[in-house]
């Protein structure tokens, strides 16, 4: 009985101790929601994972070089309601993605919308038609 109480107390302390980190993880403060950037480029990878799906896209810069942008998305469960599947994006796809960029100026952002190679448009929060 004493051992069970000790294990329960340790588990509770671990949960409470990790609460701040979990809350910080789900903050969107690192994204500038007042700005949108359109990324035209080639999908490098697409990760259909919890708690956040993501993709990266190579974007051509004016000097001819490319810059890899990392784009965070919602969970697969929410993306399905917007019309996404685990095979919506494939490496090599040419896309135009709209993101709220990172505040620190690094090449990354949070997904707002995307135009797929076939012309289909998906937007965060939109319901499939």
Low-confidence stretches: 5-9, 11-24
Give the DSSP E fraction (strand runs of 2 or more residues).
25-35%
Q: What is the residue-averaged pLDDT?
A: 85
* Named CATH topology of the domain at 37-123: OB fold (Dihydrolipoamide Acetyltransferase, E2P)
Total beta strand runs: 6
The H-and-E topology, N to C, reads as HEEEHEEE
**What is the rounded Rg?**
19 Å
Largest sheet: 5 strands, mixed, barrel
User: Which structural class fits the helix and strand makeup?
Assistant: alpha+beta
Strand order of the largest sheet: 1-2-3-5-4
**CATH homologous superfamily designation of the domain at 37-123:** Nucleic acid-binding proteins
Helix content: 10-25%
The tally of helices reads: 2
Distance between the termini: 56 Å
Q: Give the second-level CATH assignment, the architecture of the domain at 37-123.
A: Beta Barrel
Query: What would you call the shape?
Result: globular
**CATH class term of the domain at 37-123:** Mainly Beta
Helix and strand arrangement:
Layout: H1 2-25, E1 37-47, E2 54-60, E3 66-72, H2 76-80, E4 94-101, E5 108-115, E6 121-123
Parallel strand pairs: 3-5
Antiparallel strand pairs: 1-2, 1-4, 2-3, 4-5, 5-6
Description:
This protein is an alpha+beta fold and 129 residues long. It has a domain at 37-123: Nucleic acid-binding proteins (OB fold (Dihydrolipoamide Acetyltransferase, E2P)), CATH 2.40.50.140. Helices cover 22% and strands 34% of the residues. The protein contains two helices and six strands. The chain has helices at residues 2-25, 76-80; strands at residues 37-47, 54-60, 66-72, 94-101, 108-115, 121-123. Strands 1-2-3-5-4 form a five-stranded mixed β-barrel. The radius of gyration is 19 Å and the shape is globular. The termini are far apart. 16% of the residues are buried. Mean pLDDT is 85; it is low at 5-9 and 11-24.
């Amino acid at each position: 009985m004493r051992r069970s109480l000790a294990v329960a107390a340790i588990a509770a302390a671990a949960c409470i101790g990790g609460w701040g980190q979990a809350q910080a993880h789900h903050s969107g403060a690192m994204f500038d929601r007042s700005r949108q950037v359109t990324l035209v480029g080639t999908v490098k990878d697409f990760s259909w994972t919890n708690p956040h799906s993501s993709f990266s896209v190579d974007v051509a810069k004016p000097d001819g070089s490319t810059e890899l942008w990392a784009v965070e998305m919602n969970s697969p469960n929410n993306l399905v309601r917007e019309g996404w599947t685990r095979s919506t994006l494939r490496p090599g796809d040419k896309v135009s993605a709209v993101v709220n960029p990172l505040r620190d100026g690094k090449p990354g952002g949070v997904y707002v919308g995307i135009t797929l190679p076939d012309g289909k448009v998906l937007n965060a929060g939109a319901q499939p038609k």
